[in-house]
Amino acid sequence: MEQIAEILISALLVIGGVFGIVGGYGLVKLPDPMTRLHAPTKAATLGVGSVLCGSVLWSLVFGEHGSWHEFLIILFIFLTAPITGLMIAKSHIHRSWQWNELPSAEPDENWATCAPDRAEPDATTKREPG
Fold first, then answer.
1. What does the H/E/C string look like for 57-122?
2. Is-above-0.90 flag for pTM?
3. Which terminus of the chain, N or C, has fewer Cβ atoms within 10 Å?
4. What residue spans define the domains of the chain?
5. Residue-level pLDDT, tens digit, the chain, 130 residues
6. Rounded Cα–Cα distance for residues 27 and 47 (Å)
């Protein structure tokens, strides 16, 4: 039983390491933010999740008692990684696309990130000190 647990724990750690390396490599080498978008989110959810699952398994099999800390960390990462991807995508849209370059939305709907009625800053207008 312990030998099977050791093999499973080792496999989870290796899987986590591979996803971490691939995610880091993708974050550095991919050309723009929209293609880089998947590297940190996938590495975080799959890589760190595998390492934490290995830690949970080790504490259940070889430790004196199980630990809930790893479960809370896994939950936190699974909730925040998609939000990270969303923020990277929205920042890329704001920094590099104009409203007319975006694909058209459904009828009677609009993009929440870039609206056509958003006023562009005018260089000739001066703000009064408040």
1. HHHHHCCCCCCCHHHHHHHHHHHHHHHHHHHHHHHHHHHHCCHHHCCCCCCCCCCCCCCCCCCCCC
2. no
3. C
4. 1-92
5. 889 999 999 999 999 999 989 888 888 888 877 778 877 777 778 888 899 999 999 988 888 877 788 888 888 888 888 887 888 788 777 777 776 777 776 766 666 666 555 545 444 444 444 4
6. 14
